[in-house]
């Protein structure tokens, strides 16, 4: 799925795919755009061995999703823009149970990026055992709309590798988490506690 829409070499929201159904799974799929590539809007979702390309908030939404073994590639931005954002997760309340989990993925590309920014006050994003290339900006994360509410954000890194996993320079409110702490998020039951994923034909 690809959206090639641009205006005068500017960066504008242009969704390539919107996933709003509950219990949705994608295998070996591609999602290509620049800004807002994948609207992972709502529901429980699973992505395996998928390719996701963009530069600004190119995975966003309110879903509860695991991205397993996926490749995230940052594409070129107009010359006047220097950096982008991988994610903009939209968890609104601490009582909600949604968030993006990137498990054993690869992050690389040509545009420097933040791992994510706080679209809502309780944005939740976890990078687990993921290779982070040197495109990750040292700060790592941006509070954005959640400035002043950083303690409500869940933006975690655990057992990541690569030059971008060096946490020197990370924003003070982000932190590294242990495997035990993120186990609930990385277990397949996070998106499939009722067994729907295992019951799907492959």
Automatic annotation (TrEMBL):
Uppermost EC category: hydrolase
Gene Ontology biological process terms from the UniProt entry: cell wall modification; pectin catabolic process
Pathway named in the protein's UniProt entry: Glycan metabolism; pectin degradation; 2-dehydro-3-deoxy-D-gluconate from pectin: step 1/5
Source species of the chain: Aegilops tauschii subsp. strangulata (Goatgrass)
Keywords linked to the UniProt accession: Aspartyl esterase, Hydrolase
UniProt xrefs under SUPFAM superfamilies: Pectin lyase-like (SSF51126)
MF term (GO), any: pectinesterase activity
UniProt xrefs under Pfam families: Pectinesterase
EC number: 3.1.1.11
Similarity comment: family membership: Belongs to the pectinesterase family.
Residue stretches making up the Pectinesterase catalytic domain: 10-193
Protein name in UniProt: pectinesterase
